[in-house]
Amino acid sequence: MSAGARTWAEGDELPPLEIPVTRTLIVAGAIASRDYQDVHHDAELAKAKGSPDIFMNILTTNGLVGRYLTDHFGPDAVLRKVAIRLGAPNYPGDTMVLTGKVVSVAEGTAQVAVVGANGIGKHVTGTVTVGLPREGASR
């Protein structure tokens, strides 16, 4: 499909994206975002604080939500506003499945409701405003 030929409409569902939650992903995301809280890299200290294991930080989740949307809308899409809330933790060995639904489209933007669920519940929920690629934008 040529650039700019794709249109989006209210009710469109984005294809799901399965993300294996590995120990490496959790630790690398924490390091990359300079979040050195022990619960994101030290299993023994996380357990001492009441968690069964290390868990993903919100900055990693935010990045994965962004990736999910730009993978769908294309590299010329711009994330204008990301409003997410964490729920069930993402622990190593689980899989998070991101899903999305276009809530509205107006004036070159789309509002998308996003959910990321894992084996114990909804890890992330929220709404993202995406600036849509313009007609003829480069790919």
Can you characterise this structure?
The chain has a five-stranded antiparallel beta sheet with strand order 1-3-4-5-2. 23% of the residues lie in helices and 37% in strands. The chain is α+β, with helices and mostly antiparallel strands and 139 residues long. 27% of the residues are buried. The protein has a single domain (13-131), classed as Hotdog Thioesterase (Thiol Ester Dehydrase, Chain A), CATH 3.10.129. It contains three helices and five strands, in the order βαααββββ. The mean pLDDT is 92. Belongs to the enoyl-CoA hydratase/isomerase family.
CATH superfamily: Hotdog Thioesterase
pLDDT averaged residue by residue:
92
Number of helices: 3
Q: Largest sheet, described in full?
A: 5 strands, antiparallel
Biggest sheet: strands side by side, in what order? 1-3-4-5-2
Unreliable stretches: none
Give me the secondary-structure category.
alpha+beta
How far is the N terminus from the C terminus? 11 Å
Let me know the number of strands.
5
CATH class assignment: Alpha Beta
- Using only C-alpha atoms, the radius of gyration works out to 17 Å
**Strand share of the residues?**
35-45%
Shape call? elongated
Level of helix content? 10-25%
CATH topology: Thiol Ester Dehydrase, Chain A
Tally of domains: 1
- Which second-level CATH architecture applies? Roll
Please trace the helix and strand order, writing H or E for each element.
Answer: EHHHEEEE
Oligomerization: single chain
